[in-house]
Amino acid sequence: MTAGSSSRIGEAGGAIPSDHDAASPAGNLSSCVTQRLARRLTNQGALLFLGYASAQGFSFMRNALIGHGLSKGDFGIAATITLTLQLMETLGDLGTDRLIVQAVDGDAEPFVANAHAVNLARGALTAALLYFSAGPIAAFFGIPDIAWALEIAALVPLIRGFLHLDCRRAQRRLDNRPQLLIEVLPQAATLAATLPLIMWSGGYAVAVWLALLQATAMVMLSHVLAERPYRLVFDLAVIGRFVRFGWPIWLSAFPLIAVYQGDRIVIARFAGMEDLAAFSAAFMITMVPGLIAAKVGHALMLPVLSGARGVTDVFERRFARLSEVTALATSLYLLLFLAAGGAILPLAFGDNYTGLGPVVAWLAVMWGFRMMQAVPGMALMALGQTRPLLVAGMIRASALILTLAAAIQGLGLASIAACGVLGELASLVYVAWRLDRAQPSLMQVFLIRVAALAPAVVLGVMCAALFTPKLGIVAPVAAAALAGAILTQLTGWVAPELYRSVLDARLGHAQSTRH
């Protein structure tokens, strides 16, 4: 492959400029292209962070309002309904939207029309499965009276099946604005409707009405923002490509249930709704920053790494930079929640959620490993390898055996959260190893960057030990901020590629100012 071919997203032409070897005869031009790409990624990264932070912030505030407005038992039931919807959504994932970004002809109208057909079939099948299994699901959780709510909630995946996927075409050219609007505005609408619906429904059913409202708003907005009309095409050859790309992703959904829902399913079954409410609150508060980082990373990493596929030095350099940025973000995240997570939780959800600092800390570490795994995971997907992600999910799911044992023995929520950390660590090491087999030397590059997390973990534990929740939230947050500032200043030693990018950007800005 020539240097010019590295300007592709996956196999799509001309979307992302190449930063090929700056030492080549065209080094000056390449340096300018690298700076342009860096500025573009910086702008898109800032936009994505703002958008996803807003969306997750609205979602978190909605859940906090529900936590304050409902009893602990009703909040646990509402969490169960939401958990079931998330489970069904995960079970139906074929990676259709990601193939639009990755495929050579992902921009072609017939390809997207086939993606619509796959998406609609998925939504219909998921809705039918949820409707007919509503009774058994409610009985499994020991709350048979909520079967009616799950039957109505079956409309959610059906509605989402009509989502217009045109926004994914825009992501091929690093234009994330349509996708962000589809994420943010429905979250804002459901937040505005939360208090009226709590007062109207008076209980756990508010979770159903909010889910229906959000799904409807997303679908309507996706059609309003689309550049092309909505079409359905069923071409067996194209559908086969979706199946070949998506079957490992679909199979990985089963272990992913263990990753994201398994702990809560076990808690709901063996510990009851109040313990589920406590664990769900801690899970939500640690998930929000982790999910923001993961979504921003996925939206940037896949097109950026796909654009360098086949050009080894460019791929490695981009991979190193993405690893360093993710390691720094994860370090700052861990500092905050290891130092102040126990104080933040009751502030957000109320006095019923005090004394959960260890649970928050273990869940934060779990999410930290998950955030770091996004980098080698997206690199594998950019290389067209999705099967390792299935195996990684199975490795992570194996920790559910430990979780089940901890729940049966009554070891407490903190022990259950710690079991998830072991699974995430094993999964992270496996994904890095598989990437190294696909493209040698990348595992070493990645693990060196992961090692940069160690100072953050140590500092966070020290802050948590020195500043307990009894001192309020200001002291631990201030300590975490100070430690984060120190860590950021040390970035030049632990993140050379990121440091070099900053220097290049400053040099480019200085040169443009002089001219």
Helix content: over 70%
Order of helices and strands: HHHHHHHHHHHHHHHHHHHHHH
Number of E-state strands: 0
Specify the structural class: mainly alpha
Rounded to the nearest angstrom, the distance between the terminal CA atoms is 36 Å
Number of helices: 22
Low-confidence stretches: 1-31, 509-513
Q: Largest sheet at a glance?
A: none
- Shape annotation: globular
Tell me the strand percentage band. Answer: under 5%
Rounded average pLDDT: 75
Please give the radius of gyration in angstroms.
23 Å
- Counting structural domains, the number is 2
Task: Please explain how this structure is put together.
- The chain has 515 residues and is mostly helical.
- It has 2 domains: 58-234, no CATH class; 252-515, no CATH class.
- The chain contains 22 helices and no strands.
- The chain has helices at 27-69, 72-91, 96-102, 109-132, 134-140, 147-153, 155-160, 166-172, 177-201, 206-225, 236-270, 273-306, 312-349, 357-382, 387-397, 399-408, 413-438, 442-450, 453-466, 474-489, 491-494, 496-514.
- Helix 1 runs parallel beside helix 9, helix 6 runs parallel beside helix 10 and helix 13 (312-349) packs antiparallel against helix 20.
- The longest helix has 43 residues, at 27-69.
- It starts with 26 loop residues before the first helix and ends with a helix.
- The model is unreliable at 1-31 and 509-513 (pLDDT under 50).
